[in-house]
Write a structure and sequence with these properties.
- 22% of the residues lie in helices and 38% in strands.
- The protein has 358 residues and is an alpha+beta fold.
- The strands form three sheets. Strands 7-6-8-9-10 form a five-stranded antiparallel beta sheet, with no helix packed on it. Strands 3-4-11-12 form a four-stranded antiparallel beta sheet, with no helix packed on it. The protein has a three-stranded antiparallel beta sheet with strand order 2-1-5, with no helix packed on it.
- A hairpin with a 3-residue loop joins strand 6 and strand 7.
- It starts with a helix and ends with a strand.
- The N terminus is likely disordered.
């Protein structure tokens, strides 16, 4: 009986404490009504156009020197890669350390705030400026491959050995060349009636020769693709490994030693544009509009390998500058301010103010 009474008292005491805790007000926090946004960091993207060359030997490659006097034909399949060109472009990515909430309320003249798909502020009281997008590389359509057997005569198709096939195919190639020479000199038995017919006949002979030469020389196919390598500079560096490239494998992982290293260096030029609309230090008040901008810093970025420099550029990067609030008077009850941002650097592209008529 005593134990039961003590348990009831304990439960009553616990419930009373919980009730008191729930009734106690939490620590006060400032609540800002408005739209959340981020300022950007600047990312550099290198667009590499990489060509892959694939070589397949011809089925009669061993007879190329004997019948056509060709010594440089391939006897084994091979694949090689090379970089045709390197271009660069920049984008803005959200800086999670620079997250703000704009005060959209009756105390401020902010009617709208636009952000892009990544939540980066793009405009205040106006429309965002379109950002030029990188146009992906589109390879040209490849011609239909030729099938040598479509251009073989009956004697070649019914030859009893590969050596005999090679001999007859080579003789057919020489005959095609002889016919082309006679047409070009006007000595053919049946000359074309006009220039267009001559062009078609010459093109047909060229196609026949290319198809039959594949039996000896093999085929070479070239494919070009675009690969984007992204780099977000954070500080000055002299030799940062960005990627590796192999002539046999193409672009490989940075830790794959089969590829030659490509490095990037970053130099801070310690140049930063000023902005007269930025609030003075210590001038922020309780009813601040919370509209921040970035004054980006200028940097020089070099891309290079062990042999040469591949690309160099100077640009403004948000993370090498500083962010600051704009003067609160721009968004007070007397002025209506329209801002357009550069979503790559976080700087102000344009600013226009109008007096508010009462």
């Amino acid at each position: 009986m005593i134990t039961t009474l003590r348990g009831q008292l304990a439960r009553l005491f616990t419930a009373t404490c919980l009730s008191a805790m729930m009734c106690t007000p939490l620590q006060a926090q400032d609540v800002v009504e408005g739209t959340a946004y981020f300022l950007p960091r600047t990312a550099i993207h290198y667009a590499l156009l990489i060509e892959r060359t694939t070589t397949q030997p011809g089925e009669l490659c061993m007879y190329a020197d004997r019948f056509l006097k060709k010594k440089d034909v391939a006897f084994q399949p091979s694949t090689s890669y090379r970089i045709l060109s390197i271009t660069s472009f920049c984008t803005g990515i959200r800086d999670t350390a620079k997250h703000y909430v704009a005060a959209i309320d009756q105390k401020h003249s902010i009617q709208s705030l636009k952000v892009n798909d990544d939540g980066i502020i793009a405009a205040v009281n106006g429309d965002a400026r379109p950002v030029a997008q990188h146009r992906p590389f589109e390879p040209a359509p490849k011609p239909e491959p030729l099938n040598p057997r479509d251009f073989m005569n009956q004697d070649i198709l019914t030859a009893g050995s590969s050596a005999k096939t090679a001999e007859l195919a080579a003789q057919e190639i020489y005959d095609i060349r002889d016919s082309r020479n006679q047409l070009s000199r006007g000595q053919a038995d049946q000359m074309p009636k006009d220039g267009e017919q001559l062009r078609l006949m010459m093109a047909n002979l060229d196609t026949q020769e290319r198809a039959l030469l594949q039996l000896f020389e093999g085929t070479t196919e070239r494919d070009t693709t675009e690969v984007i390598v992204t780099f977000v500079p954070e500080k000055e560096v002299q030799k940062h490994l960005l990627f590796r490239f192999s002539k046999r494998l193409g672009l490989v992982d940075a830790d794959d030693l089969s590829g030659a290293p490509c490095y990037v260096s970053v130099e801070d030029l310690h140049s930063m544009p000023t902005n007269s609309a930025v609030a003075d230090e210590g001038k922020r008040g309780k009813d601040d509009a919370n509209i921040f901008v970035t004054m980006p810093g200028k940097i020089r970025v070099r891309l290079f390998n062990m042999q040469k420099e591949l690309a160099t550029q100077e640009l403004y990067a948000a993370q090498f500058g500083k962010s600051a609030p704009l003067d609160n008077e721009l968004f007070g009850k007397k002025l209506f301010t329209r801002l357009v941002y550069n979503t790559i650097t976080g700087s102000v592209e344009s600013i226009n103010t109008d007096m508010i008529k009462k």
